[in-house]
Write a structure and sequence with these properties.
The protein is of the alpha+beta class. The protein folds into three domains: 26-153, no CATH class; 173-259, PDZ domain (Pdz3 Domain, Roll), CATH 2.30.42.10; 264-514, 2-enoyl-CoA Hydratase, Chain A, domain 1. It contains 17 helices and 22 strands. The strands form five sheets. Strands 6, 7, 8, 9, 10 and 11 form a six-stranded antiparallel β-sheet that branches. It has a six-stranded mixed β-sheet with strand order 13-14-15-18-19-22, with helices on both faces. Strand 14 (272-277), helix 10 and strand 15 (305-309) form a beta-alpha-beta unit. The longest helix has 23 residues, at 2-24. The radius of gyration is 30 Å and the shape is globular.
Length: 527
């Protein structure tokens, strides 16, 4: 009887110990173990990121706030984690139980806060099953997404691979000049960039890429295709092609070169040059100048006007939009930038040559015209060099700087605001066209006459719009409703621009409404 009782007592004791152990939660890491944590490479990455954010962001931000938000970003990888701060400690918890306690660094100690985040990330890897095998890049992404999440929608982190893609879009890359699409596992050429190795080899849209460097490509992913086609300029890649009109496949050996995506295209419409700019990369201003000069030199008849179509243009490189504006301006301010960091304070002036010689210009904008595209539209409008047609633009009037981190990733950080030549800040407002087409479905002379008949109202609105200083959100909303933002693809607004340029009286009337600033530079009449 006693023996049975002893056995039962042992079982109950074991069960009790297990229950108590479970209730105790995960065991905290010892200080000696914590001292060994914190990868040196991770610390360097966090230091570079935190220093850039706190010194360069448009508005003052606290290092402690940024670092704690970064540490709390780990919870997106493992929801059982939380981070709490006391007056002297920062605590990492798992399911409510402390697994790491660290002394809170001094408010300005960037290395201290970087080490704390790195140690917490390593501690989470040890304690959390969700993070046992997680890639370091995923941790960087979680931390910086957390640190940046409440700043603004344009400040963001890109990991090493995405950052390389971003740099390729901005600066170009080593490649052969092909754009493609994948259809049912087949790789079909969608566009051939000219000039490029692919264009010189006379590859055409619709060609199917069946092999790269003698390896069949059926079923390849986009990443595999791009990695195979791209490489250092001067190196070669062999591409196998199947063309529907030919019985046998073709093989080409293409020498890679520096490729920059084309962003400017031109066409003629009734003695008018229509130039479409889709974005601003490092080649935009040069391409604009080349195409404009070719048109001016080659045509046998007078150019009656130029349309610059910025509809749907999301922006891009700030200095490229400035150089593009400078092609059509003779003097005065193009744009100025204002931020907290000394390096963000700039005023950009026109260089003194209008390569179009004063030929009338109309700029098309819509609700998707943003950032660098808005700079070009605002500069030409405020200097009295162009008439803007369309709807209120997007209103993305902040400048982002790109900080490259030691891991080859990058932080895109908002650090200043655009200020138009007439003195208003673009952010939240955008550019207000003189000829507003909101709600207009078809174009006639009557539409333009009606808009010009409202010139007193339009001038009054523009004066309010151009008031120096930052407007309130309510004021911005009210002003934008005077010409509600709309997406305006298609022919309607282009036809309005054409009618305006064909009628000298209409154009001059619209230009008089535009030219309401003391600084505006009127164009020289075309000869």
């Amino acid at each position: 009887m006693r023996k049975r009782l002893s056995i039962n007592t042992s079982v109950y004791t074991l069960i009790l110990l297990l229950v108590l152990s479970a209730c105790a939660g995960p065991e905290a890491l010892r200080q000696s173990d914590l001292d060994k944590l914190g990868r040196s490479d991770a610390i360097e990455v966090y230091m570079a990121g935190f220093e850039s954010i706190t010194s360069r962001y448009l508005n003052p931000v606290s290092l402690q706030t940024i670092a704690l938000k970064g540490a709390r970003g780990l919870t997106t990888l493992s929801p059982d984690l939380t981070v709490e701060a006391t007056p002297d400690r920062v605590i990492l918890k798992q399911n409510g139980y402390a697994i790491a306690r660290l002394k809170k660094p001094e408010a300005s100690d960037i290395r201290g806060w970087a080490k704390l985040v790195a140690k917490f990330a390593d501690a989470a890897r040890i304690k959390s099953r969700d993070m046992e095998n997680i890639d370091q890049e995923k941790i960087y992404e979680a931390v910086f997404d957390g640190a940046l999440t409440e700043l603004d929608i344009f400040s963001r982190y890109a990991g090493a691979r995405q950052a390389r893609e971003n740099r390729a879009k901005r600066d170009g890359f080593g490649g052969v000049g092909l754009q493609y699409r994948i259809k049912q596992g087949r790789i079909l050429i969608d566009k051939v960039i000219d000039p490029s190795p692919a264009a010189r080899a006379r590859l055409i849209r619709g060609d199917e890429i069946i092999s790269i460097n003698a390896r069949p490509t059926l079923g390849w992913r986009k990443k595999d295709i791009s990695n195979a086609l791209r490489g250092r300029p001067g190196t070669f890649v062999t591409v196998g092609i199947r063309r529907p009109s030919l019985a046998k496949p073709l093989t080409y050996s293409l020498e890679r070169t520096h490729i920059v995506y084309p962003t400017v295209s031109s066409k003629w419409r009734d003695h008018l040059l229509v130039m479409k700019i889709t974005s601003f990369n490092q080649n935009t201003a040069r391409s604009m100048q080349k195409q404009l000069e070719q048109a001016l030199n080659q045509t046998t008849t007078d150019i009656r006007g130029i349309v610059i179509d910025l509809r749907g243009n999301p922006g891009g490189l700030l200095k490229q939009s400035i150089r593009t504006a400078d092609l059509l301006l003779t003097q005065g301010t193009i744009i100025s930038t204002r931020g907290r960091h000394p390096d963000s304070l700039h005023t950009y002036e026109a260089g003194g040559r209008d390569i179009a010689g004063g030929i009338p210009v109309v700029v098309l904008v819509d609700s998707r015209t943003a950032s660098a595209a808005e700079i070009l539209a605002a500069a030409l409008q405020d200097r009295g060099r162009a008439v803007v047609v369309g709807t209120s633009s997007f209103g993305k009037g902040t400048v982002q700087t790109v900080i490259r981190l030691p891991n080859d990733g990058e932080i895109t950080l908002t650090w200043s605001r655009f200020k138009a030549p007439s003195g208003y800040f673009l952010h939240g407002l955008g550019v207000r066209p003189v000829i507003c087409t909101s709600g207009v479905r078809s174009t006639t002379d009557t539409v333009i006459k009606n808009r010009l008949a409202q010139k007193l109202l339009t001038r009054t609105t523009l004066e309010k719009w151009r008031h120096p200083g930052l407007h309130s959100k309510t004021s911005n909303r009210s002003l934008r409703l005077s010409c509600p933002p709309e997406e305006r693809p298609g022919e309607s607004d282009l036809k309005t621009a054409i009618l305006l340029l064909k009628n000298t009286f209409f154009y001059q009337q619209a230009l008089e409404i535009t030219d309401t600033t003391d600084q505006a530079q009127k164009p020289v009449p075309a000869h």
